[in-house]
Amino acid sequence: MSEKKKKIEKRRKDADLFKVVDSTIDPRTYLLLQDIARKLRIDYYLGAISSGKEAKVYPAKTYDGNFYAVKIYYVSTSASKKAIQKYTFGDKRFENIKASNTKKLISIWARKEFKNLSILYESGVNVPKPILVQEHILVMNFIGENGVRAPLLKELPDEEITKDMYEEILSQIDLMVNKAKLVHGDLSEYNIIVYDKIYIIDVSQSISIESENAPELLRRDIENINRFFESKGIEVNDTEEILKRFNII
Ligand code: ATP
Ligand code: MN
């Protein structure tokens, strides 16, 4: 291919990188997304499937027809900054990082989620497989079909919510605590995807069971799950019983 042709081809690729134009993507993020596309053989990114408090998630389609979920953290929100300070405080794995600005903090946040995902994945917890992290962008396997995300537990019709599902979630918590040695810290019907099985997501704030506030966060996680299933008419186990069963309080 001639140099000129290559340039034209490249320009076409860049313009096609996004199927849906997203004005919230700043130039730095755009460059990173181009770089990630090259590394992971991504053909294009689709429109955001969510814009939460801390991040936006986009499906990305590879040339092989696979999908990734690309989580892009907002680079400056006081909410994330506060959350980071709260959750990384006292976490030994992050003690040595003295972040001086929000941008750095957000990258640490993304790296923390990646690290937690890796630990959980290797411990056999059902989480999306972590693929890469670069600055404030995290890439993981996509849970869903053809770029259409699978529903959250929160979004399931009542008749599909079962006692088995409840038990499955409890055994995932058990695995997280006793094998991965992590407490989720923000577990609820909003951070569980139901597909071929249940998947735990959003683990940026997860902390070591050794942390001072781990017992408190674990109790809250279990209470959230109990409250949800109870509201659907499913008989749940007593929170204290569950904690005893997990052998950590
Ligand atoms: P929110 O504030 O809305 O909870 P968040 O910043 O906490 O957003 P996540 O909970 O990690 O971010 O992801 C936001 C949404 O993106 C999820 O509710 C889910 O619908 C979707 N999502 C996240 N990860 C994946 C994935 N691996 N596969 C498919 N969908 C995903
Ligand atoms: Mn979430």
TrEMBL record:
Protein name per Swiss-Prot or TrEMBL: non-specific serine/threonine protein kinase
Keywords recorded for this protein, A-Z: ATP-binding, Kinase, Magnesium, Metal-binding, Nucleotide-binding, Serine/threonine-protein kinase, Transferase
Listed SUPFAM superfamilies: Protein kinase-like (PK-like) (SSF56112)
Catalysis: reaction(s): L-threonyl-[protein] + ATP = O-phospho-L-threonyl-[protein] + ADP + H(+); L-seryl-[protein] + ATP = O-phospho-L-seryl-[protein] + ADP + H(+)
Enzyme Commission no: 2.7.11.1
Limits of the Protein kinase domain: 43-249
Entry-linked Pfam families: RIO1 (PF01163)
Statement: the UniProt record of this protein carries the keyword Transferase: yes
InterPro entries, sorted: Kinase-like_dom_sf, Prot_kinase_dom, RIO-type_Ser/Thr_kinase, RIO_dom, RIO_kinase, RIO_kinase_CS
KW Protease (keyword) present: no
Family membership: Belongs to the protein kinase superfamily. RIO-type Ser/Thr kinase family.
Any one Gene Ontology molecular-function term assigned to this protein's record: protein serine/threonine kinase activity
